[in-house]
Write a structure and sequence with these properties.
209 residues, mainly alpha, Leucine-rich Repeat Variant
Length: 209
């Protein structure tokens, strides 16, 4: 929430609209013709909304404004990462800290497994364990976790692009290309994924569909 607010302050004009005070105000602001106002609405929904609001942010991944598209992507990550349980959030933070050190992937996997056991409906717990398993070289297990993410959040472009990376590691470029295309279909702002697609299409002699 703080990061999104800071981005808004640095990326927008000097005079900012007042942030929404309620979900109703946020929804009205999201339909504004003013890009900073739409960005303010995204900050509110990302920090105080629910997963039911995710489609509203997903729609803004195709906004005419670069500012709003960037906020929508970061806002979705923030929304996805909110479990609604302080204990789960603490476990997630510990897991992420462990995952950032190559020697602590086993610890990260254990922490994310605890998250999953406590709150199996929380898609981001599965996604973080998928990432830790990928970093640990446990590719098949990571694929299985990504499948669980997508059962709960079919538009999770992180899991979709992650599957592309896994299949690249497994030397299965056709499958990798399929998953990268699906990720870009959900979020057309993923420049790294777009580059992957171009490279794979050249390798496979294919064209975009």
């Amino acid at each position: 929430m703080v990061l999104l607010a800071l981005l808004l302050t640095t990326a927008s004009p000097a005079i900012f609209p007042a942030p929404p005070k309620s979900r109703g105000e946020a929804l009205r602001a999201l339909a504004s013709t003013d890009a900073p106002t739409r960005a303010e609405a995204i900050v509110w929904l990302a920090g105080l909304g629910t997963m039911a609001d995710a489609p509203l942010l997903e729609a803004r991944l195709r906004d005419e404004s670069d500012l709003v598209r960037g906020f929508a992507e970061q806002g979705l990550w923030l929304l996805w990462g909110r479990s609604g349980d302080a204990t789960i959030d603490q476990l997630m933070a510990r897991g992420v800290a462990a995952m950032q050190e190559s020697s602590r992937q086993a610890e990260a996997i254990e922490l994310f497994t605890e998250v999953i056991e406590k709150q199996p409906a929380f898609a981001e717990g599965w996604n973080k364990r998928a990432t830790a398993r990928y970093l640990a070289g446990q590719y098949e297990a990571s694929i299985a976790d990504c499948a669980e993410v997508l059962k709960r959040n079919p538009h999770h472009f992180g899991a979709l692009s992650g599957l592309g990376e896994i299949y690249l590691r497994l030397d299965k470029p056709e499958q990798a290309l399929e998953w990268f295309r699906r990720a870009l279909e959900v979020n057309p702002n993923l420049q790294g994924v777009e580059l992957r697609i171009e490279q794979l299409e050249e390798l496979l002699g294919e064209t975009s569909t």
